[in-house]
Design goal:
Layout lengths: L2 E8 L5 H14 L5 E8 L5 E3 L2 E3 L1 H5 L4 E4 L10 H8 L9 H8 L1 H10 L7 E4 L5 H11 L4 E5 L9 E3 L2 H13 L5 E5 L4 E9 L6 E3 L3 E4 L8 H5 L4 E3 L6 H17 L5 E9 L2 E9 L10 H8 L4 H13 L2
Parallel strand pairs: 1-2, 1-5
Antiparallel strand pairs: 2-3, 3-4, 6-9, 7-8, 7-9, 10-11, 10-12, 10-14, 12-13, 14-15
Helix pairs in contact: 6-7
Length: about 325
């Protein structure tokens, strides 16, 4: 009998639409001769659907041999769905509940990066809306303007803005709290080349295989935001135009962060290559890594001759411990 692979996609986060695209790409590329793919859709209210009909998670999961987690954002990359899968004993791709939460929380991940010896931008975390004014005052005094305002644990650059000055910073932070974010991060802007580097466990016989770093070039006058990530206007060069030393350091850093965050199977870490050195921004655990046609990891895999189909087969085998 073929292995039944459930592909979880959608979900109750603001990354619902991107998750649908990642899940569709996985469903279209899972090798049919090896696996029976099941499209498990979770709607924006958190209701599970199997073969087009609403169902309870426990009923769905009993019918699956393994799960590929393509849920981005809250419930997907923060450890929530992983806890559910663990409860029902279903093998799944990617990080365990704690490592998923740790890597998705940008401040906790930054602290681990600093402990590992990496530079990261100065930042301030705001966890309560009543602290917005005092935090904004501190940021104006302490950081060069403009600054980056972002949710502390959302992905796909959703809700990220670059603003300068007391009133705009307050407005940007309050807007995120009003959208339901649990915390807001204010970061200094580091000027340099944007880069990302992926790693995959067990690929080509290596314990942790380094993919070539990608250089990300957003449209003139823009940063790498949600819109230009997926509309084709950003140039993504694989391998990036970095020196050999810089490329090797990006690959080393991605490996280190995968390990110190306790991640599994694959991840992708983001950096800024500045004149002062390489700054760590964040690590995307597997559930936060987009797998759409426009996503960075599939492009890195293609650059080293690994098809998306072969990657997915390898991923399912990792989840099953084969």
């Amino acid at each position: 009998m073929q292995t039944v692979v459930g592909v979880l996609r959608g979900g109750p986060s603001r990354e619902h639409d991107v998750s649908l695209k990642s899940g569709a790409a996985i469903l279209a590329n899972l090798p049919e001769e090896e696996y029976t793919a099941r499209d498990i859709y979770i709607d924006r209210q958190g209701v599970w659907h199997d073969r087009g009909r609403p169902s309870m998670p426990e009923r769905v999961l009993r019918q699956l041999d393994v799960v590929v987690v393509a849920l981005h954002g809250k419930f997907g990359h923060d450890g929530e769905v992983q806890r559910l899968l663990e409860r029902f004993g279903v093998p799944y791709t990617g990080a365990d509940p704690w490592s998923a939460f740790l890597s998705s929380h940008k401040v906790m991940a930054k602290e681990r990066a600093k402990e590992a010896g990496f530079m990261t931008p100065q930042y301030q975390l705001i966890e309560n809306e009543e602290d917005v004014e005092s935090a904004a005052s501190n940021v104006i005094r302490s950081f060069h303007q403009p600054v980056i305002v972002k949710p502390v644990n959302s992905g796909s650059s959703i809700g990220v803005s670059i603003v300068g000055g007391y009133a705009p910073v307050c407005e940007a932070v309050r807007a995120l709290f009003q959208e339901g974010e649990s915390g807001v991060l204010i970061e200094e802007v580091i000027r340099g080349k944007e880069a990302t580097a992926g790693v995959v466990e067990g690929l080509r016989g290596e314990t942790l295989y380094s993919l070539p770093p990608v250089e990300i070039i957003p449209p003139e006058g823009h940063f790498f935001n949600y819109t230009n990530k997926y509309d084709g206007s950003t140039r993504e060069i694989v391998p990036g135009n970095f020196s050999r030393v810089t490329s090797e350091e990006l690959q080393r850093a991605a490996k280190v962060m995968h390990r110190v965050l306790g991640l599994r199977h694959y991840s992708r870490s983001d950096f800024i290559v500045s004149p002062k050195g390489i700054y760590f921004l964040e690590t995307n655990n597997s559930a936060a890594v987009g797998l759409t046609g426009e996503s960075l990891l599939p492009k890195s895999l293609a650059a080293v001759g690994v098809s998306f189909r072969d990657f997915l087969s390898h991923l399912v085998k990792l989840a099953l411990g084969r």
